[in-house]
Amino acid sequence: MADNTNQKNSMEKGIGGSPKNLMVPFLLLSLRGGFGLHGYKLIQQLTQLGFSSIDQGNVYRLLRQLEKDNLVKSEWDTTSSGPAKRIYSITDVGLEYLDLWAESLGQYQTMLDSFFTMYSNMFMPLVPKGKKEDPDEK
């Protein structure tokens, strides 16, 4: 059981950081469906989720690191025509890690909501409902 505690502490330390690390929860979430996906399909999903410029090499390195950390597992698919493809799926540890990310991102969302509320109140005062701002009044 001590091993799980150490693993959880290690996972919590790894959350956040650089934008590359922000890709981790999206990769894990993409694999959450219960069926495996190959790297190219994962990259397509990341693009659809808003990651505009993705270095494919970084994604594959990240997937290998996630596999080394036991967050994802892979196996070779040789059943389809063409070259064999590595199919990735999420592990139970990966599901726990995804839950930690969701909790952490929820906290960030709360902080960001507070920031934008403060920012809006300071720099974009609300116009009373029903009254439009008249540029001639200034």
From TrEMBL:
<dbReference type="InterPro" id="IPR014091">
    <property type="entry name" value="Tscrpt_rep_PHB_PhaQ"/>
</dbReference>
<dbReference type="InterPro" id="IPR005149">
    <property type="entry name" value="Tscrpt_reg_PadR_N"/>
</dbReference>
<dbReference type="InterPro" id="IPR036388">
    <property type="entry name" value="WH-like_DNA-bd_sf"/>
</dbReference>
<dbReference type="InterPro" id="IPR036390">
    <property type="entry name" value="WH_DNA-bd_sf"/>
</dbReference>
<protein>
    <submittedName>
        <fullName>Poly-beta-hydroxybutyrate-responsive repressor</fullName>
    </submittedName>
</protein>
<dbReference type="Pfam" id="PF03551">
    <property type="entry name" value="PadR"/>
</dbReference>
<dbReference type="InterPro" id="IPR052509">
    <property type="entry name" value="Metal_resp_DNA-bind_regulator"/>
</dbReference>
<feature type="domain" description="Transcription regulator PadR N-terminal">
    <location>
        <begin position="37"/>
        <end position="98"/>
    </location>
</feature>
